[in-house]
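Data availability (excerpt). The following record was deposited with the supplementary files.
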Amino acid sequence: MDAPIASLYLISVGALAMCSFQAALLARSSSYVRACWVFAVICFTFALFQYANLRQQLASDLAAAIAAHKWVNLFSLLLVPQIWYLIAALDDRKRAFFLSYFVAGVTLLLVADNFISPFGYRFASLAAEAPCKLPWGEQAFLLAGETTPAYTVNRLLSLGAALYAAAFCIRARRERARFSNRVVWLSVALIVVTTAMGGATDAGKLQLPYLSGFGFLFLAASYLLLVRWEAARSMTEKIRISAALEREVESHKLSSLRFEHALTNDALTRLPNRAGALEKLRAMFIQSESNLTRMAVLLLDLDRLAIINGTRGYEAGNQLLVEVAQRLRQDCSKGGLVARLGSARFVVGIAGHKTVAGIEREVEEILAAVKPPFSIPGTVLNMTFSAGVAVYPDHASSAEDLLASAALALHQARDAGPGNLRVFHPSLQQTLSERIGLENELKDALEKEQFVLHYQPQICAASGRVVCMEALIRWHHPSLGLVMPDKFIPLAEATGAIAAIGSWVIDAACRQLASWRENGFIDIRVAVNLSAQQLLLSDLGDTVQAALQRAGLWGADLELEITESVLMQDPQRSIERLEALRRLGVRLSIDDFGTGYSSLGYLKLLPVHAFKLDRSFVRDIGKSAKDLEICATAVGLARNLGLEIVAEGVEDASQATQLRKLGCHLLQGYYFARPLAVYAATDFLATERRVA
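Predicted structure:
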């Protein structure tokens, strides 16, 4: 092979194949994996394009040249969608990929036309049939002639790819300063020029072989150098970051020791805190297990520390805590634990005893050590401690459980009053477990529709007619049966579920009243009890108004009962909330009147309609002159304030007679009816209507 152009083509084939291999290798380390793989395919396609050009130019006759030319066409056609896809991979926008898929579809049609047409997709006819002479004297088969519409379509697609590439490079330069290397721009310009020269050759204006493959070879080399430089820069940056991280880790090792000490120790007393105490307790626990000895946890809570802080100042309180810590540390056996768990709570770990009696003696010694007065600057303080004790293995099987058991015992000791000591008993844990279980089940009870309402009638003392039905919630527990509200309402208030439950009660009671109204019971209203938390909710008025609207009721159809003690917790705020409810037309009454610590000055300001006389006064009204006098006074007070009075807990005829004589307006109790399920309450109303 003595043709210089053929040698150049062969060299370019090898170079492009090598570029394809290099791009595939770079795909593993570059951040542009997909783009590198596509570029590798483009390089390989250009290598095949160059080889097909070589076959065309060295063809033995025109037929062989045309056959080779069709392969040239094939690879040139394949390059256009590949270039579109490469830019889309770098652009990483969905719309860009859609355009590349469209170009690929058009290219498939052009490929089919290329192999069907006699001269390929470029030419409708050929201008010359003999090899032509190149400017430097070499003979080669270069085809030219009349171009086809398919050729024009491919040129437009190529032009679109060039414009897309230029727009992407401009945007990339503005945004990230990548792919804006001058060599890359020069390579792109070279490809555009060589492609234009190829078009001139097809039209017969030039007699040159297709040179776009050589232009792309320059681009391939510059692109690979750019990607390799970026990969090297990325690796250098990783090494720099790794070294910086190593230095940072080393600097943090010293700091972490200080932090670890701060996390597990109390800054004031320099005793272990809760985290440090648990760590030490676990070690003591393991040792007791291996030595077959008993260990115990003694929790001490300093009574009245808040009073000391308030009267003597926090400095005195802190000094007191330091003195307590010193005494406990001095009295604690060697290897034992003394820690501060909270503001006024200390824990002492007791270990190494074979019997409970040994633990009891050490507990007594510790309590004796903290019993003498504490001398702090300016005063002497006599302090008391509440204490709780739990023993392993009697009360717990782990360090955490042992501490929790001691906390339960301490809770019981505090309930008994300052200065008490209690030892854990399994019944405490059982009670707590039941409470926790009930709390967890309470969270799902509303969603599972386990709540029901029972209704107890309120009877007009003068006419004997039912004027109100009080809604009383019950929990239909799947295993415990019917649970009364005094068992679960405190839990609902403690867990924050009372708002949702209270809203459901109001809504369900209003719906039931609407149902009774549809059945002809038009002269009754419904009463609902409000909890302390419900009264303080800012959206209570919205909840009530929405329930009334859904049921198609007026405000006067609903009565809300509020416990007297709840009202007195924050009288001013309670008056504001009651005023808002009264503006809706809702009736309001004070429940359990006489059992709280009411101020008559506040009572006259409360915007209520009625008092409910507590059952504790009604119960002995026929036996106790004092209770009779209290009831008479309450009735007189209500009459003077222009309020109705409802006597609850009426259980026999004599009580009802006495209350009528006193002038009670409404009566409620077992004498008339127990709280009734909905169907029973409906039957009661129907019976009462028939009797009337």
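Summary of structural features: The chain has a mean pLDDT of 80.
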